[in-house]
Amino acid sequence: MSEAGMLLQKFLRGHPIVFGALLMLIGLFQVAFGIVLFFFPCVYRDELGTHFYSAALLILAGILTLAADKANSLCLVKACLVIYIVCVIVVAVINIFYLIDLLYDPVNRNIRCSRTDPFCEMLHQIAVCCAGVRGIVLVLTSLGFFIGVSMAAFGCKAVCRQSLEDDNVPIAGSRHFPSSTEVVREIQS
Questions:
Q1: pTM higher than 0.85, yes or no?
Q2: What would the pLDDT profile of 50-96 be if each residue is shown by its tens digit?
Q3: What phi and psi values does residue 63 have, to the nearest 5 degrees?
Q4: Which domain of life is it from (predicted)?
């Protein structure tokens, strides 16, 4: 087997077809919740369509992952690695926005009226529904984030580490640490 084939095997060990399909499903669910939150916004970020940015990246990452699994191309694995890195960064920022919206929501916290008033009761129910939908979207994007990180690790293992001999992870708790003179001798030779 060629070296490129062995590097692809490292990527295929991560079961990219399963995770690619899962990323696409998460992206599609995100689009569905994004449509609901776009037409019935709870906070101002919903009107900006932030749900669609992460959904588009998750769907694109899923499609590229499925293509890399099907075509067995090292170039597609590199493209997957790039899109995973971009996807993880964007999804992390959007997750922070979701957490801020869940923890601090000034629109829904300032509902001051009698609970016996039907209009006030409806406002409280809307606030609870918004928090619930936002919590579901946060869980979905967090799942997409962790899948993106794990698939980026498999992609980096296939692309970034070109050496096939050293596949072991160095352990920090090793008993023998080289002295500074040994390191200097090794560098000079």
A1: no
A2: 888 889 999 999 999 888 888 877 788 888 889 999 999 999 999 99
A3: -65, -45
A4: Eukaryota
